[in-house]
Amino acid sequence: MVNFLKYRWVYFIISSFFIGMGLFSILKWGYIYSIDFVGGTNLQYEISLSVPTSQIQTILKESGVAAIEVVRSGNMVTIRSKPINEKTETFLKTNFEKKLKTKVTTLRSETVGPTLGRETMTKTIIASILATMGILLYMSYAFKGFTYAFSAIVAMLHDLLVVLGTYSLFSHFFRAEVDTMFVTAVLTSMSFSVHDTIVIFDKIREYKEQEGRGEVEYYANRALTETMVRSVNNSMTIVFMLLALTLLGGSTIQFFVLTLLVGTITGTYSSPFVATPILVWLEKRKKGR
Q: Could you give the residue ranges of the DSSP H alpha helices within the chain?
């Protein structure tokens, strides 16, 4: 049997480092929000010749379009602006073709109002709160103890902070946008984290019922020793699939897959090295009273 809990301070330092780095990024750089959240228009044009960004911005200004961001990649031009109607978009495209004297092909055109953006944000927060409450109630009932549920929720919040902080770094360095796919990835990562935790906690409960009263730290180390290989193998199958999707899935789902990858890794880590040490600490405090 491996004494995993002997190194609990090492796990604390590792978690503190990644959470601290993520919080620094969130506070300093924040996120780039997609139109799903803040409202606006996304346009993507294919232009048959290379055009300087400054010239594109000039044409946008002449067309009465308030651009938030203009990104040029080869012959592809991506524009984020305040909401515009179909008439303005048609005029903008015509103006591009007239000024540049070349054909312009619309690859993407979508507009979301700020009201829908606020509604999306509200639904996201409500969904997260409901998911957390559901997990708390279920685990309190299933394990007949609040300490199990509380430890699992702390581990889940740990994973949430790591994922949010990492995505802030993606947003700053790679221009990743916070959109509905990111929300889906976050909620999926939260559920994955709790899944592994339940497996370990169930083993601890099983040993306590079979052997009666004993040291919870012994039961925890025994449970971790028996479940660690299975948890890692299970996670690696998911990691390999996500790595393949990252390399071959294309830019549309790239950051969605990367978020799932980060969530899978941190979820695999937090179940044995965050949730379990917290449970042992809480159980010892309860026993000492």
A: 8-28, 35-38, 53-62, 86-100, 114-143, 146-174, 180-211, 216-248, 254-270, 276-288
Which 3 state secondary structure label does DSSP give 271?
A: helix
3-state class of 77 per DSSP? strand
Taking only the tens place, the pLDDT of each residue in 118-141 is: 677 788 788 878 878 888 888 888
Please give the Cα distance from 104 to 143 (Å, whole number): 62
DSSP state of 64: T
The whole-angstrom separation of Cα 22 and Cα 17 is: 9
Q: What is the pLDDT of residues 234-278, one digit of tens each?
A: 889 999 999 988 888 777 788 999 999 999 999 999 999 999 999
CA angle 14, 16, 19 (to 5 degrees): 110
pLDDT for res 205: 87
Q: Which domains does the chain have, with CATH numbers?
A: 4-35+116-288 (1.20.1640.10), 40-112 (3.30.70.3400)
As to burial, measured by CB atoms within 10 angstroms (0-12 exposed, 13-18 middle, 19+ buried), residue 127 is: middle
Q: Which residue has the higher pLDDT, 12 or 184?
A: 12
What 3-state DSSP class applies to 276?
helix
Residue type, 16: S
| Separation CA 177–CA 32 (nearest Å) | 5
Does the pLDDT at position 283 exceed 90? Answer: no
Each residue's pLDDT tens digit, 133-163 = 888 888 888 887 789 999 999 999 999 999 9
